[in-house]
Amino acid sequence: MRGFSLVAARDLKIAAGISAGDVAPLAASWSELPRDAYLRDGGRYRSRRHASYVQHVEAGTLELVAHRAHWQPLDYNALHGGIERWFEPVSTGVEANAAWRALIAGIGTLLASIKPVTRWYIEAHQFRIDTAEGIGRPTPEGAHRDGVDFVAVILVGRQGVKGGESRVFEANGPNGVRFTLVEPWTLLLLDDARVIHETTPIQPDGEAGVRDTLVLTYRGNGFQDPD
Predict the structure, then answer these.
(1) For residue 72, which of 116, 40, 47 has the smallest C-alpha distance?
(2) d(CA 123, CA 224)
């Protein structure tokens, strides 16, 4: 099966034109994420921030748009779909970070070579899943699609946890693959029309730990908004 690609951290940094030193201060911002107040399973294991962009591919520009709610239809997220979720915006320090913008735009440029578009409508999500209260669930909604063209999952780091296996399955078939992202800044790239994906729960490996990711979604025909 295809519909996904794993990109090593070294190759991602080359593609985005950044170095290990560029992303080090960026990674520290994951310790400053507020709690996700919308978890419908009653958990307190997820923290996050959110931002939205429009990338004008031919002009080579990335535009931060006014802060907006994250919304998904129930067809794509049976647990949290159908509601406007107003997460705290990405901090001004992160938004101004050159490596942050280079990652978002670099991946967008790569994807435009696969699916030619004039612009990408991009949502950026900083996630921290922790095990302070036991189990942490990166994808409490289970295996799913996001209703976009492409999903980019970047592992920022993991510490003191076990589990967190990535699973990618054919959207309309029986085949699937399983692997665990370990090296920071490894990229899992998903063709959202062809595959569904999930990440298994994490457990503390000794003391409580965390798993940090940056999830970017790219959509060519506008943001997802309520009808």
Answers:
(1) 40
(2) 10
Residue ranges of E strands in the chain: 4-7, 46-56, 61-64, 119-130, 150-159, 161-163, 166-170, 176-179, 187-191, 195-199, 202-204, 210-219
**DSSP H or E stretch at residue 26:** helix 20-27
Strand partners, 84: none
Q: What is the CATH number of the domain that holds 164?
A: 2.60.120.620
Which residues are CB-contacts of 1 (< 8 A; sequence separation ≥ 6)?
170, 173, 175, 176, 177, 195
> Which residues, 6+ apart, have CB-to-CB distance to 224 below 8 Å?
71, 72, 73, 147, 148
Map tokens 């709610």 to a residue. Answer: 69
- Residue-wise pLDDT tens for the chain (227 aa)? 589 999 999 999 999 999 888 888 899 999 999 999 988 788 899 999 999 999 999 999 999 999 999 987 777 666 676 688 899 999 999 999 999 999 999 999 999 999 999 999 999 999 999 999 899 999 988 889 999 999 999 999 999 999 999 999 998 888 999 999 999 999 999 999 999 999 999 999 988 899 999 999 999 999 988 87
Count of domains for the chain: 1
Residue 63 is encoded by which pair of tokens? 């535009």
226 within domain boundaries: no
Question: How far apart, in whole angstroms, are the C-alpha atoms of residue 197 and residue 93?
Answer: 31
Domain, as residue range, for 81:
4-219
Specify the length of the chain in residues: 227
